[in-house]
Each structure stands twice: as structure tokens, then as C-alpha cells.
Amino acid sequence: MAMRKREDDEVYPNAAGIDVGASSHWVAVPRTADDQPVREFGTMTGDLNAMADWLLACGVDTVALESTGIYWIPVYEVLEQRGLTVWLVDARQMKYVPGSKSDVQDCQWLQKLMSLGLLRAAWRPAGEVCVIRAVVRQRELLLTEQGSWIQRMQKALGADEPSAHRGTLRCHGRDRPGDHPRHRRGRTRPESACPFPPQSRQGADRQLARGAPVRARAGAGDVRQPRPAHPRMRCEDRGVTRPARPAPRPADRPRQEAPEKHPRFDARAAPARWAGVDLTRINGLSVATVMTILSEIGPDLSRFASVKHFCSWLRLCPATKISGGKTLSSGTRPSANRARQALKMAAMSLSRSDSALGAFYRRLCARMDKPRANTAVAHKLARMVYFMLTRGETFLDQGQQRYEEQQRQRSIAALRRRASALGFQLQPNAQTP
Length: 433
Prior knowledge:
3 domains, alpha/beta, five-stranded mixed sheet
């Protein structure tokens, strides 16, 4: 007869489990904490505060939260603000619920596994990192949406435009004589010789009007450095009324350029001050890539036990499955991790680089297909990022020539070992330089 697990074996005796849903949340506490150990709460802020009050009244100090969609985010933030230790748990760790599956069964099973210490918490960055991550993700979304509007406007202009003049004009959004010639690039024919059909101009105006708010929001997302205060007093402080500046005429207004892919402040110095090291020194990591990586993982990687744990979290390690002494699969698992995608894009940019990492990428491409080589180089970049953030090491590129010379010496040493094992001696050719 199997021995039942005693209460003394509980790792977290005051743990609670929450089954998160879109319309309601089911919460389970230990049976000895309340007469009604399972309760249902709504999703509004008042309901979440009532949930936190009930958990604190029951003496709960640790809460296991199921990561369901985006519905767990407000629950996590409210409980964390109330002083509770919240564990975000992957739903795959508890999918085998005994008996019929229901919301009540899920929260009770979640509370049981949490009390016995059989669950692992997912890693979530600190609060300031989450704020920066939200800003960076929103900016990337706006830039992507802006690019879509620009493509639609170009399509509207190029639908009926003569091929000889396609791409030579920029529509300013106004259908008045004299506006379009000011925004031409290069030599073009007069306005009368290359007219835009009315339907093309109207379509471009509509797309430009729709994309203007997106463009304004994308430009506003650029964080600018604060300007130092002027040592002299302002005119308002001295009691002098400053005259209002007249609005510039349309002909004198500066030309509005599309927001750059990179922000308008010193983006290289800001992440370096935050992380303590300059990650842009690594070949392939641009300013935008470093901003994406730091906004996703933050500068503190103490949550990861080792560099192998970090690379495994990024899904850059092979997920080897062995059964009966036979390898079933050894490929990397798919993931939507933005830091992983940024590292893989950085690895792809090294295909024509003259650095040691570029030579390493091309060497791997000669041995395997490019997707696997890209993953291997991204894994190497992830290790460099980990060591720079944890040890404060400075990256120094050794160059392509030195890397190729090291590989040549390693190949010669391997050939000598193999020849010695077969009873031969390897001698260099005197004619070879």
C-alpha cells in the first residue's frame, strides 16, 4: 500500500493556486485556512483587490499563477503590489489533472503541486525592465505599421504613374499647383508633362492622412535626453512678456522626414550606462538589436544559474529526445522570444563581415545548412552577451585572419594526432609557404 505524503513534507504550506480565465478567476487555498477553500473572483480591479484581501486574511504568502494568454498580467501586478510572492507557472507543468478537468479542479491541483514544491516559476524581468520593454515593443509596432502605410501610399502613386517617372515624386498630401514639384528628387519633367491622375492623388492623400497619426506616435516614442537648464532667468520669471512667434509659412517649414529606424538620442551610450558594458562592440549587434535584447532580459542575469541555462531559455540549444538509446530529435524548439529573434537576425548580418564571427559563420555554412549555422552563431552571440553582462568582460574582435590561422593550426594538430595514432609522422612540405 502506498504511503500518503504527510503535511510535514510540504515545501510551501501557505501556498495558493489560481486558475486564470477571461471572465473569472478560481482561487484555492489550503483547506485549513478557510471554511470555503475555493472561491471565484471577477476580473475587475475591485475583484482583484478583494482576492488579495482574502488571500492575506487566509495567511497565504506564495501564489502559483497559471500563465493563460494575457489575462494573468493584471492578477500578477495586483498581487505583487500587495506583498505576495507570485509564481508564474507554465500550464504544461500541470496539464495532467486527475479526474474530470474543470476550473475548480485546476486551481486545487495547482495549489497542491505548489505546496509540495513540484512547480517551477517562469522568469519575469523586474518592474523597470517591463516598462522599457513595453515602450520598445510599442515603438517597433508603430514602425511596422508606418511601413505598411508607406507601402500603400507608394502603391497608390505608382498604380497609374508612368514607369519612367516612377519613384521620382513625393506626395506632400495637398492637391494644389506648385506643391508637388517642390518635393521632387532628381531631374523630372514639368508638372504638365507628368501629371498624376486624380484617383492616384486622392488615394495617396487618404493613405497619408491615415498614416500621419501613426507617424506622430512613432516619433513621440523616441526618448530624448533632458536639456540642461539655462543659468539665466526666463523672460516670464522677470515679468517680461515674450512675444509669440509667427507661424512659419508653408514654403519656410522644414521638410518632415520619416522617423528613423534608430531613435534620435544617443542610443549607444544609454544602454551602455544601464548595462555597465557596451554590447554594441560585439560584431553584428547594432544599437537597435542591443535595445531589443536589454528590454527583454534586462541587465541583471542572476536569475539564470549558468550560461547554459540562459541559452536554453532562449531556445538556442538542441532539445535532444532519447528513448531506448535512440535519438528521436535533436533540433531546437520553436519560440517567439524577441531576444532570440534579435540574436538570430544579428547572426544573419555576419555573413559578409570581415570579423572573426563572420569567418566563423561562413565556416559553419560550409559544413551545414544556413538555418543551423544561423542558430549556432546566435548561440555564440548569446554566450558573449551573458559573459559581458555577468562578468563585465570587454569584447575584442581578433579579426578574420587570426581566426583562420587558429583554425589552420587546429587542423594541423588534428592531422598530426591522427597520423601518430596510425603509426605515421606528418611532415610539412618545404614548398608550401
